[in-house]
């Protein structure tokens, strides 16, 4: 997959529950980084502060080795405490955060969006980048139809900050996404099962 990206970026979104028993999350991330991943979004929503911080510190050793950014999903304290490149959160959470501007000055902040209006508002509130999805049908959103390439293109036309596409992106459809104005894609399932 990584050889298909051309000038665009491919970010890895973690989910340790998808990894085969014979491997672990750090090994999967190392393989992805070695093959050309451009960044890692540590998204382990079930972990409390201490466990997430410990895991983040281990993964940061890998991302620093490959000189790629580590972004912590859902826990700004961990992101700041381990000196991660960025913090990622959902639109509603970002909208309700106190002092968005001061946080965005300390650390790169990304926001997940599912509507053009959310994308525009997130940019207005100071987001540094957007994760737009889900583009295609995915096992992570069972029963929900993908929003499609048109949705992605509309978001890209309405904001000036980088847009990363997520959701059901695989080798057989990645070219469709990379042919849009999106700056790249984020993948989870195929990255966690990488050989």
TrEMBL record:
Pathway noted in the entry: Cofactor biosynthesis; thiamine diphosphate biosynthesis
Pfam families the UniProt entry points to: TMP-TENI
Superkingdom as given in the UniProt entry: Bacteria
Entry keyword RNA-binding: no
Domain Thiamine phosphate synthase/TenI: 10-190
Any GO BP: thiamine biosynthetic process
One GO MF term attached to the UniProt entry: thiamine-phosphate diphosphorylase activity
Keywords linked to the UniProt accession: Thiamine biosynthesis
SUPFAM superfamilies associated with the record: Thiamin phosphate synthase
Entry's Gene Ontology cellular component terms: cytoplasm
PANTHER family the record matches: THIAMINE-PHOSPHATE PYROPHOSPHORYLASE, THIAMINE-PHOSPHATE SYNTHASE
Protein name per UniProt: Putative thiamine-phosphate pyrophosphorylase
Organism of provenance: Clostridium scatologenes
Upper classification of the organism: Bacteria, Bacillati, Bacillota, Clostridia, Eubacteriales
